[in-house]
Design goal:
37% helix, four-stranded mixed β-sheet, 31% strand, alpha+beta
């Protein structure tokens, strides 16, 4: 009760969180945006500081770690294994496959700790929401899917003024199970 854990959520879930002990999960993971995010500091006058700390990199590549994570999920068998194998067949050796290999075991652990009456909300963006929906169907069961919630922004991100060649992105997705 009232405990803050600091670390990789997969490790924390496996070592510290009991089965069926959580009522509500809101997950806002990295979006596979291929960007680095920094903790920004300000000078005393309010201007930006040259000193910055990298908070996390949101870039995923198939490497030995993601390959091992993928293999761990596949070896457990079941619907999640089948979904991951299908993703691998379709996506091949892509960054999206590495991202899904990172997400799958975390979602499996979240399903384990969620009470039967609990709810999970997964915040994602349209670049991965369709893959994550299929992965969550494999984990939580399609019957437990309740809704896709669209979170509309007040301004577009990555629009043409920033060099993008696509329409401005004006929403995120929350998958509710």
């Amino acid at each position: 009760m009232n405990t803050l854990y600091y670390g990789d959520n997969l490790d924390v879930l496996r070592r510290h969180i009991k089965d069926e002990s959580v009522d509500l999960v809101y997950l806002d993971p990295p979006f596979n945006s291929s960007q680095d995010y920094n903790v920004l500091f300000a000078e005393k006058d309010g201007s930006g500081s040259a000193a910055q700390i990298k908070a996390f990199g949101d870039t995923w590549h198939l490497d030995s770690f993601s390959a091992a994570t993928y293999q761990e999920v596949v070896e457990k068998g079941g619907k999640v294994s089948e979904a991951m194998q299908a993703f691998r067949l379709f996506l091949g050796q892509t960054d999206m496959m590495a991202y899904l290999a990172m997400m799958a075991p975390r979602l499996v652990e979240l399903q384990r700790v969620l009470k039967p009456t609990g709810s999970i909300y997964l915040h994602c963006d349209p670049t991965a929401s369709h893959y994550l929906k299929m992965l969550m169907d494999a984990i939580f069961g399609p019957v437990n899917y309740k809704n896709e919630i669209v979170w509309k922004r007040t301004a577009a991100h990555s629009d043409s003024k920033q060099g993008a060649t696509h329409f401005g992105r004006i929403h995120d997705v929350l998958l509710f199970y």
